[in-house]
Write a structure and sequence with these properties.
The complex is a heterodimer of chains A (150) and B (367).
Chain A: H1 3-20, H2 23-33, E1 39-55, E2 62-77, E3 82-88, H3 92-104, H4 110-138
Antiparallel strand pairs in A: 1-2, 2-3
Helix pairs in contact in A: 1-3, 1-4, 2-3, 2-4
Chain B: H1 9-24, H2 34-40, H3 42-52, E1 54-55, H4 57-66, H5 71-82, E2 87-90, E3 100-105, H6 155-161, H7 189-197, H8 201-212, E4 220-236, E5 241-257, E6 270-277, H9 281-294, H10 311-317, H11 320-329, H12 335-354, H13 358-366
Antiparallel strand pairs in B: 3-4, 4-5, 5-6
Helix pairs in contact in B: 2-4, 3-4, 3-5, 4-5, 7-9, 8-9
Classes of the chains: A alpha+beta (150), B alpha+beta (367).
GO biological process, one term (chain A): organic phosphonate metabolic process
InterPro entries (chain A): Phosphonate_metab_PhnG
Organism (chain A): Salipiger pallidus
Chain lengths: 150, 367
């Protein structure tokens, strides 16, 4: 695996995490992480729809299910890194923060940002998912068979 | 004679102001917030997202508030908003095999790997009004088990291994989109599924029920019903790779249906498929039954002329916004149309009278 592959896989990871994170949490973590860096828009935030597809029978040919709202934007930091975001919902500030993190993660402040923003988001997402899975697990049926003729 | 009619603006303005006032209801009762609707009327929100064909819980909750709880009106509002959105792209087909399931049951295999997980279901409740809900009070935390985050395998996969069920071969063919091109018949399964997933729940339920009662019967078992969260991925052209852009709750139903086989197919089970936005179990099961009924021709089954097997009948009538638009327009002014009808009836009466006694004329016709 070369350097580009590693970067792409890591970048896909944080871009997805940022898209799934609650907007107020990302805002709070970024405000705590420091002042907003200078950046100029390559594409100002735009709200639109993405057609979500499914597969027949879960595995077959694709069909169109319906759209979801998304907001996308792209920006360039003064230091040159370009950040992209395409996040669920209509929150332009959320898309902007996601693009800022995407750009910053390509620069020198990446390790610090990983620690102060991405890792908390990741931990909280895992905790949310596990809490939900734990409630589901409590509703799992334990079958038992009645022995006849005793 | 055409008589242009103007006026009514003042009455319309007053009607809308009164509507806003009535929407608010008794001022002594606290106003509902959009967040309250989103969180506490979540199944209504899910239905509006599914039929409005737009996944956005906040907008669906707002639409429900604006529509005073009239869900078809709320769907209408969401559809209208949807048309204002630029289409940014198309997702990769979601992988329901990776779903983080809140609920997952099978009516065909008791000991399905991954287990029977009931989730937050109305099933097994006694359907008695719970007067405790009329009083304010804290709801206790539900019990927790050991979380199992491994994906649950699709039940039909087990049948597929032994060729006992029809294969669903994957394909990357671009499916048609009925929001972009007008619906034409024969539509094909991809368009049918799109129409069914956004179709009116009551209509799709009625069609599905008709198949159970014998109008195009196809003996459906719910092989699997799962509700949970899946990630949505889309390619970002500027980057040249896919990223996760968010996650949606979906309900998926796979039915396993009897099939005797045909000249070209061995006897094996066949499938019906339902996949709907949100926790929308009744709709997903109904969709799967109607999907299967509409496959009768493709599977070489006898066409019994049942409505649920008639693609044109089902697809042309499943959309509640089309239906309500055409239905409700007849209450709006048709003064000119009606005037011409009235003149026609009068003329026919004059002509009939000129030919003699109307009653005598009818008797002659009977003879």
């Amino acid at each position: 695996m070369n350097q580009t592959d590693i970067d792409t896989s890591a970048r896909k990871g944080w871009m997805g995490l940022l898209a799934r994170s609650p907007a107020p949490r990302l805002q709070a973590l970024m405000e705590a992480a420091g002042p907003r860096p200078e950046a100029s828009w390559l594409r100002p935030p735009e709200v639109g729809g993405v057609m979500v597809r499914g597969r027949m029978g879960g595995t077959g040919a694709a069909f169109n299910m319906g759209e979801m709202t998304v907001t996308r934007c792209a920006l360039r930091l003064a230091s040159g890194e370009v950040g992209h975001a395409c996040v669920q919902g209509r929150d332009k500030a959320h898309a902007e923060r996601a693009a800022l993190v995407d750009a910053l993660m390509q620069g020198a402040s990446a390790p610090q940002l990983r620690e102060t923003v991405l890792e908390p988001l990741e931990r909280e997402e895992t905790a949310r998912r596990e809490a939900r899975a734990a409630k589901a697990a409590a509703t799992k049926v334990d079958f038992f068979t009645m022995v006849r003729g005793d | 004679m055409y008589v242009a009619v103007k006026g009514g603006e003042r009455a319309i303005d007053a009607a809308h102001e009164w509507l806003a006032h009535e929407r608010r209801g008794d001022r002594a009762v606290p106003e509902l917030s959009v967040a309250q609707i989103r969180e506490q009327m979540s199944l209504a929100v899910n239905r509006v997202m599914a039929e409005g064909s737009l996944y956005d819980p906040d907008l669906a909750a707002l639409a429900i508030k604006q529509a005073r709880g009239d869900l078809i009106e709320a769907v209408f509002l969401l559809r209208a908003y949807r048309t204002t959105l630029p289409r940014i792209g198309t997702s990769r087909p979601v992988d329901t095999g990776t779903m983080r399931c809140d609920r997952r049951v099978s009516a065909t295999f008791k000991d399905a790997p991954g287990g029977q997980v009931l989730g937050p279901t109305f099933d097994y409740t006694h359907r008695l009004l719970d007067f405790k809900l009329a009083a304010e009070g804290e709801v206790p935390q539900p019990p927790s088990g050991t979380p199992d985050t491994t994906p649950k395998p699709h039940i039909t996969g087990f049948l597929g291994r032994d060729d006992l069920i029809q294969d669903e071969p994957a394909s990357d063919e671009v499916p048609p989109d009925l929001t972009r091109e007008p619906l034409e018949f024969p539509a094909g399964r991809a368009l049918r599924l799109q129409a069914l997933t956004r179709g009116d729940e009551g209509f799709v339920l009625g069609m599905a029920y008709s198949t159970q009662r014998g109008y195009g019967r196809n003996h459906a078992f719910v092989g699997e019903l799962r509700i949970g969260t899946v990630e949505v991925e889309m390619e970002i052209p500027e980057l040249g790779f896919d990223i996760c852009i968010g996650e949606v709750v979906l309900t998926e139903c796979e039915t396993v249906n009897q099939f005797k086989g045909s000249k070209v197919e061995p006897p094996q089970f066949t499938r019906g498929y339902g996949l709907v936005f949100g926790q929308t179990e009744r709709k997903a099961i109904s969709m799967a039954l109607v999907d299967r009924a509409l496959r009768a021709e493709e599977l070489g089954e006898e066409n019994t002329g049942a409505p649920a097997q008639d693609e044109e009948f089902v697809l042309a009538h499943s959309d509640n916004i089309q239906a309500t638009g055409f239905l409700e327009h007849i209450k709006l002014p048709h003064y000119v149309d009606f005037q011409s009808e009235m003149e026609l009836v009068r003329r026919m009466r004059r002509e009939a009278a000129a030919q003699g006694d109307v009653v005598a004329g009818q008797k002659e016709a009977a003879e």
